[in-house]
Amino acid sequence: MTTPAFELGRNPRLADVAAVAEGRRGVRLGACARARAAKARAGLLKAAAGGRPLYGVNTGFGELASRRIAPHQLKLLQRNLVLSHACGVGEPLPESESRAILFLRANELSRGHSGARPELIALMAALVNAKVAPVIPSRGSVGASGDLAPQAHAALVLIGEGEALWRGRRLPGRRLLARLGLKPAVLEAKEGLALLNGTQAMQAVGGLALHRAWRVWEAAQLAGAMSLEAMTGTPAPFDEAIQRLKPHEGQARSAFGLRRLLEASAIRRSHRFGDSRVQDPYSLRCMPQVHGAVWDVLRRSTSVVETELRSVTDNPLIAGARVLSGGNFHGQALSFAYDSAAMALTALGNISERRLSQLISGQSPKLKPFLAAKPGVESGWMIAQVTAAALASENKVLSHPASVDSIPTSANKEDFVSMGMSAALKLSRVVFNVAQIAAVELLCAAEGVEAHAPLRPGRGVAKAHALLRSKFAPCRGDGILSRKLETARELVLSGFFSGIIESP
What we know:
Layout: E1 6-7, H1 14-21, E2 27-28, H2 31-49, H3 74-85, E3 89-92, H4 95-109, H5 118-129, E4 133-134, E5 137-139, H6 148-158, E6 163-166, E7 169-172, H7 173-179, H8 191-196, H9 200-230, H10 240-244, H11 249-261, H12 266-270, H13 282-285, H14 287-309, E8 317-319, E9 322-324, H15 332-359, H16 382-398, H17 420-450, H18 459-469, H19 482-494
Parallel strand pairs: 1-2
Antiparallel strand pairs: 3-5, 4-6, 6-7, 8-9
Helix pairs in contact: 1-4, 1-9, 3-6, 4-5, 4-9, 9-11, 9-14, 9-15, 9-17, 9-18, 11-14, 14-15, 15-16, 15-17, 16-17, 17-19
């Protein structure tokens, strides 16, 4: 069944952004959105006809805002703005993030508070539906007047400049438009500024990272439950009565999910009585308290981002008959949200790496050192844990908050900036790293569970184990693990393991 196109001008959720960005869903500029955009355009032109200076409409930009621009130069002003601001550097953003920027900017312009013509928005929608991804360098935004440099690179394609990826090829903007039967836009008053001002690059990069973070969280829950089975741990600390005495929502959800994953475990029944160990290590015992706290932070961060997704972050804004200059382009809220999520996920990766270390220590019943069949002649999963440790340590560096920084720009006119794009880029890397750590734990825990055969783990763990084994055979002696680790990581990030955990 075909997914209906997203109606531009509405309030997207992170799942909607991901669907459009990944090319699984198109967009549509409906009659209501066209009417809103046309009304805002008319209001802008009426205000400009009054002769008073309007920032970015008939004036220069930033520190040059006091310079009035003659009417015959207004189109040149907007084109020059896009060209001069396209000065990003570094490796390009992934195609999904680039496409998300184009989609989110078109969606905001469709709300009818920016003054962009419906024809310009329709061109953006056509590029999104053709699955075009402008080539956007990843570095160059401080989250000041939004993400000026990244969004300028996205705007280049609309005017027949820059480059874009389409059907696996990198094409100049003008040639791409010709291939699609589209004409380059000639930007009119305020439209260059409307394309550049806003937090869409931050929204896209950090928002898609958060969307993947939820999948990583689920994978960590599965890995933790599977590790507990492999190490013959006890689910007693997940008892509902304990969680009621510390009623954080995330803790309750994590504990509930772990109980369901471990339900009807034959491995647990085999050691329920007569086990001399009184308590498990914290990395097993405290999963609800740690995983749950991560869930709480991810929920709050997601709420912030989805509020931003339904916001208007342009400047100036058209509100009825008024044209108002403000600061909605500032990315501080997103910067805080992404930093918080990165720190929480770093902790999730840390506890996963500690369980992994316990798994390969050789201290648990039936588990040989490093899960090797012949310890000594074989090293087993020894260095896979080292890889996880390296990533966990890298995350600690990445967890330094970008949101506490600021650097003045634009001749000190933009004297306090959010560094929101830096926070988004850091979060994306942390999500990648934690997905890899969780993937290593899943692979090792699966080997550990199999050491208890023919005893079966809990129903949820058994389901996760079967999913894993549908992609990876058990290890039979030492071999190159790199490709296996990376494939497992991509499965985590794709949501392959999502949906197993039940919600309370």
